[in-house]
Amino acid sequence: MKALGIAATGMLAQQTNVDVISNNIANANTTGFKARRAAFQDLIYENRQREGTLTAEAGSARPTGVDVGLGVRTAGVVRLNTQGGLAQTENQTDIAIDGRGYFTVLMPDGGQAYTRDGAFQISAEGQLVTLQGYEVDPGIVVPENTVQLDIAEDGTVSAFVENDPQPVELGRLTLATFVNDSGLRALGSNLLEATVASGDAQAANPGDPGIGVVRQGYLENSNVNIIQQITDLISAQRAYEMNSKTIETADQMMSTANQIK
């Protein structure tokens, strides 16, 4: 009886499903977080009678076969890259991306990572950095005695220094895009890195065709829909219970068969 093994694969799959859903719920208030969805595939089939074979009785072809599946497996965890809502913070170093794209940050090992979290700060050296202290690329250095920082929708960063009525242009933020956003690897701390699946980063300016704009004084909320996640959690729980019930039923059936004399 293969029901025990088949149901076990179902329980493992639903456990993964619950793990993904719980991570989504845990990050419901994480800036720039994108919800994930577990995707599943059926396993190979045991073919007991092939479609199209001739019947011994009449010599006609069978319209259907007898295939018994051997369970399910996790095919992948897909990132859902829909836009999160924008929350106004009025903090001049908070920047949200409204549309497609990622901020680029420099990692301590010299590599690059990408993020939708625009909760930036100014370091002791005047650099625009992430909450972890990683520099934003291209680098923006804010002069001392800056009284106001102005970031336009096209990424141009200007500073008003002391009593000078004319702003000083400090540089321009760019956005990175990828052919396959779902192929980015999550590093934690709201950071992603490029992979072979995502393709190389393509730099673009905010506001270019097909590229988002930046909004100063805003942060992008998580795109997690709590109601949908709770519904999915209940569904996963019920599926897990049914697979467990299948194992229990299969055990009872084998016990009954063993008692036949």
TrEMBL record:
UniProt keyword list: Bacterial flagellum, Cell projection, Cilium, Flagellum
Domain Flagellar basal-body/hook protein C-terminal: 215-260
Protein location: Bacterial flagellum basal body
Domain Flagellar hook protein FlgE/F/G-like D1: 96-159
Residues annotated as domain Flagellar basal body rod protein N-terminal: 6-34
A Pfam family matched in the record: Flg_bb_rod
GO process annotations (BP): bacterial-type flagellum-dependent swarming motility
GO cellular component: bacterial-type flagellum basal body, distal rod
ATP-binding among keywords: no
InterPro entries: Flag_bb_rod_N (IPR001444), Flagellar_basal_body_rod_CS (IPR019776), Flagellar_FlgE/F/G (IPR020013), Flg_bb/hook_C_dom (IPR010930), FlgE/F/G-like (IPR037925), FlgG_G_neg (IPR012834), LlgE_F_G-like_D1 (IPR053967)
Subunit (UniProt): The basal body constitutes a major portion of the flagellar organelle and consists of four rings (L,P,S, and M) mounted on a central rod. The rod consists of about 26 subunits of FlgG in the distal portion, and FlgB, FlgC and FlgF are thought to build up the proximal portion of the rod with about 6 subunits each.
Identification of the protein by name: Flagellar basal-body rod protein FlgG
Species of origin: Roseivivax isoporae LMG 25204
Lineage: Bacteria, Pseudomonadati, Pseudomonadota, Alphaproteobacteria, Rhodobacterales
